[in-house]
Amino acid sequence: MEGQPSGTPFMVAGYLITWAVLAWYVWRLNRRSVDARRALDSAQAKPHANQESESDR
Amino acid sequence: MTINDLPRPNPGRAKLLGAATLLLFAAGSAAGLFLVPADALQGEVQRLLYVHVPAAWLAMLSFFVVFVMSVLYLIQRDPKWDLLAVSAAEIGIVFTALALVLGSLWGKPTWGVWWTWDPRLTTTAIMLMIYVGYLVVRSFADDPEKRARWSAIIGIVGFVDVPIVYLSVLWWRTLHQPPSSPRSMAGEFVYVLLLNVAAFTLLYIFLMVRRYRLAIAERHVEELRLTRDDGRIT
Questions:
Q1: Looking at the whole model, is its pTM more than 0.90?
Q2: Cα separations (Å) of B186 from B38, B43, B180?
């Protein structure tokens, strides 16, 4: 290994990147799920609103 | 079968799975970093094995799941197979990118380079491009059935590269070492590697459950919007 860089910083960086990427992905899935739930509520509310306004007429 | 008939995963069970995954993942990382000794030749950097190999294994498992779900979709035309395929493809991309970055971090101190056009590295990069392309193609198709059909075909044809990635280190003379196995490693290294493979596999199941739930919700939104738009046109 003479002349080669020490492996410890690479090993530490690898573990930190692994944890960071996986935590980021779980966070992204949570955010997208919240957004999808809101969009679902809004999309479900609109047809009802349309039906109500048609029956009012 | 319509989207309303799709199974709805149990959120309580998903939370329990998340807690078990976190515990096993922490145990695997602690064992890889502190319990097992450093490699006699490579030193501390060899500890990357316990995250690099599981990430690569899960990438291949994900794309195998994409392949199986794509075949099932083309046979049954059931939207759940398409939603499972896209969930597996996205998770597979995350793990493939992670395996490439970790391999690069391992390669610099041992090979002296961040990247080389070695058969294993090159075929893995091609695999990443294929499944990124899979997601790009999906984003172009507005019709859910057409999108599912196109992506199922890519999911089947694209899988051809996955066994090539695995066998590349056996078929060609490469800088990358042959696949790690219990026969090529000392016992304590094997146990820690298996612990991390189990932790990553549990994490994969956890991510699949969450991603599949998201895919179902997104599909519901899309169907409601399409129904509303059809109502406006007629």
A1: no
A2: 12, 15, 11
